[in-house]
Structures are given as C-alpha cells and as structure tokens.
Amino acid sequence: MSQVSTMNRRAILADVCTALNMFCGFLAILAAGRGRWTHALWLVFAAAIFDGLDGKLARSARSGKPSDFGLQLDSLSDVVSFGVLPGVLSYEIFLKHMGVAGVALGFLPVLCSALRLARFNVLSMAGASPFYVGLPAPMATLTVCAFIWCDALLPPAIGGLRLLPVVVAGASLLMVSSLPYDKMPHLAFNRGFANTRNLIIFLFGLVFIPIFPRYVFFPLMMVYVVSGIVRGLRGGRSELQAGRTNEREGP
Fold it and tell me: Which of 120, 141, 189, 246 is deepest in the core (most CB within 10 A)?
C-alpha cells in the first residue's frame, strides 16, 4: 500500500512539474510581449528543467511508463512553452520587421511543435526506441533562445539577429524530421559510455549555462542539433524502426 501511495505522489508531482512548465511558458510569453527578453529567456530555461523533471517523475511513478493523462498533459504544456513561446519571442524580438514573412516564420515553431508532439503521442504506442524521432521541441526552443543570447558576439555584418529567421526555420523543420536524437541521459554513471558522456555534457550545461549563457549555451545546443544530423547521415534512422519511444521525457 505504501508503495502504491509513493507512486501516486510521484505521478502527482510529475503533473505539477508539467503545470509549472506551462506556467513558465505563459510568463515568458508575457515577458516577450513587454520586451523583457532576458526574463523570457530565463523562463524558457526554467520551463525546460520542469519538462525534464516531469519525465523522470512520471517514469519512476509508472515503472517506466507515463499515464495516458500525463502524456497528453505534457504535450499540451509543451505546445505552449516550446511552440507558442518561441514563435512569439522570435516575432517580437525581430521577425515583426519582416511583415507577412515574419508572421509566417513566427507561426512555424507553433505548427512544427504541434505536429512533432502529435507524432510523438502516436508513436509512443508502438514500442521503445533509444532515440527521439526528430529534434525534441524543448531543444528546438532552447536552440533559438541560445542563439538570441549569443547574437551580440557575432560580427556586425551578420549580427543584429539577422540570422534568427534561419535559426527559427531550421530548428522548426528539424522537429518534424525523422532524424534520431538522444534522450535525456539517465542520472547514473553505470549505464554505459554513451549515457555517461551525455550525462557529463548535460551536467556541464546545467552548471555553466546560468553562469556564462552567452558563451556556453549556443555551442552546446549546436552539438546536440548536429549530433542528430550526423547520426541520421550514418544510418541511425534504421534503429528507429526497431521500436518507438513510450517514455514521457518531454517530446
């Protein structure tokens, strides 16, 4: 009975983290609308952390499987934090100067994240896979935010967020691609070399991104983005056909 009670508490905590993810996304949208870019970027980072936590809690509560309710709630939350938010943020900070093209580009993350999350929910019923299919929505949003942060370091000829439309379009299209991307690593150093490597990179980012966001954030995100492209070119997509993920780690 106590074990069941513990699992129920973890499931409830997972749903609370999902709600906090959505709340951070909502606050970030408000901040973006008021021109408070730094506040919005930090809130995106917080939303991603809550998104990762709800996945860990959901799996521990359900012996590796999320509830159907939790899975749907998580996806709806992610559409807000990692779909609507990057679209609004990108539009308000730069794309609005591009007229109709800026509106279309601002909508692209919303559309692609919804398509990616819907596909994730469908494929989650088909079995397990060591990879995500397509760039996860939180990582796509973090890539856009990381670029905004580091843009000031670029030479004047390409700075001033001139490359933001390319980054937004690229991250959005990668979400609906079939490229294989690593899941969030297990928090243990005895799960094999690949997990240990990814865990070290993850912990490095968790420590140094808040300290040096302008210098660390975007390079780390590009490492992750490129890793899926390289794996796809090497034939990693064939491994995806062996099974589909049903883990609630934040699609």
Answer: 141
